[in-house]
Structures are given as C-alpha cells and as structure tokens.
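Example record used in the benchmark description.
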Amino acid sequence: MNGLDARFLPLVKAVASVLYGKEESITLALAAFFAKGHLLVEDIPGVGKTTLAKALASLLGLEFSRIQFTSDLLPSDILGVNYFNQKQAEFIFRQGPIFTQFLLADEINRSMPKTQSALLEAMEEDSITVDGKRYELQQPFFVMGTQNPYEEVGTFKLPDSQLDRFICAMSIGYPAREAEREILAQKKPRTLPPGTHITPEEIKEIQERVDRVHLSDALLDYLQAIIALSRNGVHFTHGLSTRGALALAQMTRSWACLHGRDYAIPDDVTAVAPYVCLHRLHFKEGRTILERIRDVITSNTQPDA
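Model output (structure tokens):
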C-alpha cells in the first residue's frame, strides 16, 4: 500500500480485514473497477477469489450476483429468457443473473464457448440483446471472472476476443506465513468493518476523476514504447491490440488516481503493465508468465518522464 492516497487507504484496509495480506491484489481490483473495466482472476481454488468479490461488492455498495459456470450452462441461464404468460397472453422477459452491478463469473472456462460469448456484449457495451430487443444493464456494471489456470479437464479455453474484454488479469496467490497464521487462529469468519462503504455518487466522482488524469507527451511516448515492444515479434506471438493499448492507458490513469495524483508517472505504467499484458501476450516458447513480462518491459524501455 506504499503511496496509496489517504482516501483509498481505508477501503483497501477494510477488504484486507477479510482477505489477509493481499493489499496489492485489492488495490489492483479497485483500480480495474474505477477504470470502468473488468477483472480476470486466475488462481487455484481456495485462495480467496470469492471472498475478494463479495468484500468488494459490499464495500462499493453494489448489487451482487454469482454465476457458477458449468458445461451445461446456457446463454439464457445468464441473460434471461422470454416466456409466454398465459394470463396476460403475451411474452414476458424474465431477467437473468447478469442484471446486477457486480457479477462474479465463477470458473468461467468451464462453460461452452457459446455460453462464454453471452458475456461479450455485456462487458463491452453494458447491454444485452435477447430476441432482437436490447436491454440496458445497471450502472456501474463490473464483471469479475475466475478460472483455474492449471486444470484442463472439462474446461474450454477463453478465446482472445473474450480475454481482451478484461482490462487486466491477476492471481491472488498463497497468503504469507503471518497472514496464514491469523487465518488459522481465527474462530469465526471476519466481515467488513461496519459502515465501510462508498456511495454511488462517490463512485461516479472517482471514475470521472480517473478519466481526467493527465498523460504527458513523454508518458505517452513511454506507453507507445511498451506497445511497440509487444509488437516487434521478438518476444511475443502477437502484440497488444488497440483495445489492449487503451486498457493500459486507462489502468495507468486509475493507478495514478488511487495514489493521489491527477497526472501519471512512469511508475504507474510499470506497476499495471504486467497485469494488463498477462492475458493478452504469450511468449513464443510458452505460456505468458507475469515476472517475465515485467522483466521484458522494464529491461527494454526507458521512461523519459
């Protein structure tokens, strides 16, 4: 939490009271939310993904829904369905669980590709279309997807087009020894401190402030150096798309805002770039690894600002 703005420090500490020792992951999740993006969490079961989602939804005062993705899940199970009401002699739309503000798409890679794609329009346009009719979703709308990257049996890999809808990806990891000792010693589950939440007006104000964070010409040069590095064909199979480049810029703004600045610095870029790139870039000789992406970025680009 080094350098975190005093306004956001209590928010991170509140979530850290139920997810011990994971302040960096919590800060990154908040940055993704305030950047108006969506978050993908790739990790093994039982490290706190659902705990993080529920705590964030409570902290932000958002309506929460959870969908357990399975191989037999249908798009209509997510979006909703038109059914014929015999009393009214007309079709009525029954909303699916996607009509919420904070959606936990749990084990998203366990559903069929057709079901996975049901989220694409919602994540990109904050709306869905059923039988040719468009339905607007509540605002703010945030999707936190989870998947186990080590399990392949009974899973369907998310295509790049869907992965690109997540502004960043991360893993929570095992707790540190001291944090795990606290978890083992506790006698009952902890909850967020009472009264810890922010209002819809505050959320809107923070998101607008993120949009106003200034990116200098020198910083834009640094961003473009990273983008060009991803596309030079040396390290990765393919580079960042324009959407990926925009995600990097917006996460940079959000990280700067969380640290109390209305302008971004190179440290903001290097802090978020590995997580923005994690699910978008793939090393030629194997699967993308967070530390290697960070090494490539920091060793091949020199910030001027």
